[in-house]
Design brief:
Number of strands: 22
CATH superfamily of the largest domain: P-loop containing nucleotide triphosphate hydrolases
Distance between the termini: 85 Å
Largest sheet: 10 strands, mixed
Number of helices: 11
CATH class of the largest domain: Alpha Beta
Low-confidence stretches: 45-53, 151-173, 491-496
CATH topology of the largest domain: Rossmann fold
Shape: globular
Helix content: 10-25%
Strand content: 15-25%
CATH architecture of the largest domain: 3-Layer(aba) Sandwich
Strand order of the largest sheet: 6-7-5-8-9-4-10-11-12-13
Number of domains: 3
Radius of gyration: 28 Å
Oligomer: single chain
């Protein structure tokens, strides 16, 4: 039987080569050749997309394509992960047979979250945890530190028994260590061994930690390379869809923050989650950037404690400061992450500059957005910010990227310049246009309901927003200068 062979394909122009070169001989791009596996061809399948011209299509041949009405409905109930925050980000729970890619910085808590989730799921179904970067003893020590119930390692199915009896090396030993005897551990990096164990055990959920550590022995490239990550993910995806196994795949990130490996890795999976957080803070944010079975840009909030990751029942409390302590230059906004409104405190400091060019600093908000708002304040309101340093930050380390925070930023900067205190019971919502107008935003009622629930009595919103039945005083504004005058309690015009 002929063996598979490797070729090298240029990512830029698609040129093929039997040997690796640092520079593509066709387009001249450097480091663009990646290894691909070519299956051996036969006379029958040498060109899969080409049909012989001598054969005529038959009318009685059954058609494979179906209309939507011909496809049978097979509703599948989602699986609860045991964590409401994770279920929220996934769109209401785990979809059977789906692939979920989890990325994040080293030490942020990806393995901790998935190990805790695996232990919760093991109470109801078989779960396989593939630890490609740690030994079995290391994972067991971590599970004991997290307080996960440890069993005596009873034998599971026949494939597990064979692995325990025949394996002398730790890399092929499969053990069950949950009190329900349904959580199995496999310290292995070889792709074919992992696939065979998945087919034999057939768990309901499997965790691959991590995809960059797996290798396919028919490829000559090192684990973690573009070709290895692509081939391993593709093989795992085919098995998961065929056996209806839910896969959680851990992916490393580059220094730029993107998931390492080819972009096709994110295209192959059903859901892409990013685990974020400041290493100096205890909270962690789980953000969805792709979800075929739910809304994107959903946010889940966790807190790192001594027993691992714990859910945060009221995330807005993390991003709000002490409302009793009144300091100039502080305003409150309501940001929406997916369908979740979060009340966030914005802090601003405006001071005379010591340099020829004033400094601008933005923490938690977009830097270019800050520059735009500062230009509007100077041009439309008359605040001379071109000779002043401006620092703006969001409390709690949350990154606020939506335009609905513009009005809060503008009023915080103006309050710091005027040395005025913004009413701590006032919430600010609105987008600032380049003409100095306050533009409407989406989900206004959802934002105001969250603010009212936390005790805010007043709200400053754009003109024309539809609201009804809210237990708070609503003030509509159309210009930034009017919003500043209302929030800071003085009369102002564009030339003030």
């Amino acid at each position: 039987m002929a063996k598979a062979r490797s070729i090298y394909v240029c990512n830029e122009c698609g040129a093929e080569s039997r040997q690796y070169f640092g520079k593509c001989a066709v387009c001249g791009s450097w480091n663009s050749l990646v290894e691909q596996v070519v299956e051996p061809t036969t006379a029958n399948n040498s060109r899969p997309g080409r049909r012989s011209t001598s054969r005529k299509p038959t009318d009685n041949k059954p058609r494979l394509a179906k209309t939507f009405s011909q496809i049978a409905d097979h509703p599948q109930a989602r699986i609860g992960s045991g964590y409401g925050e994770l279920d929220r980000v996934l769109g209401g729970g785990i979809v059977p047979g789906s692939l979920v890619l989890v990325g994040g910085d080293p030490g942020i808590g990806k393995s901790t979250l998935l190990l805790q989730t695996a232990s919760q799921l093991a109470a109801r179904a078989a779960v396989l945890y593939v630890c490609a970067e740690e030994s079995g003893q290391q994972v067991k020590l971590r599970s004991q530190r997290l307080g996960i119930d440890i069993g005596q390692g009873k034998k599971g199915k026949s494939s597990v028994q064979n692995s325990l009896q025949a394996a002398d090396t730790a890399s092929t030993k499969l053990t069950a260590f949950s009190s329900s005897e349904s959580l199995y551990l496999l310290p292995e990096t070889d792709l074919e061994t992992i696939l065979s164990e998945l087919e034999a055990l057939r768990p309901r959920v499997a965790v691959i930690d991590s995809i960059q550590a797996l290798f396919y022995n028919q490829l000559t490239s090192a684990p973690g390379s573009v070709s290895q990550v692509r081939e391993c993910t593709s093989a795992l995806m085919q098995l998961a869809k065929r056996e209806n196994i839910t896969l959680f795949i851990v992916g490393h990130v580059t220094k730029e923050g993107a998931i390492a490996g080819p972009k096709v890795l994110e295209h192959l999976v059903d859901t892409v989650l990013y685990f974020e957080g400041d290493r100096f803070a205890s909270h962690r944010l789980l953000r969805s950037v792709k979800n075929r079975f739910g809304a994107t840009h959903e946010l889940g909030v966790f807190e790192m404690v001594s027993q691992g990751l714990a859910e945060v029942p009221n995330p807005s409390a993390l991003f709000m400061g002490n409302r009793d302590e009144q300091v100039p230059g502080i305003s409150t906004i309501v940001a929406c992450e997916g369908s979740r409104p979060l009340v966030v405190e914005l802090q601003s400091l405006v001071s005379p500059t010591s340099y020829s060019s004033p400094r601008r600093s933005a923490t938690g908000i977009e830097y270019n957005r800050l520059l735009q708002i500062l230009a509007v304040l100077e041009k439309r309101v008359g605040i001379p910010l071109s000779k002043l340093d401006a620092y703006v930050a969001s409390s709690g380390g949350l990154s606020v990227a939506e335009p609905a925070a513009d009005l809060g930023i503008a009023i915080a900067v103006a309050a710091s310049f005027r040395d005025r205190i913004v009413d701590p019971e006032l919430v600010l919502i609105g987008e600032v246009g380049l003409g100095g107008q306050v533009r409407p935003v989406s989900q206004i009622e959802l934002r105001l309901k969250e603010a009212a629930k936390l005790g805010f009595k007043r709200a400053l919103v754009p003109n024309g927003q539809k609201m009804s039945g809210l237990p708070m005083e609503i003030t509509e504004v159309g210009r930034v200068v009017d919003a500043i005058a209302t929030a800071l309690g003085f009369q102002a015009d564009a030339n003030d």
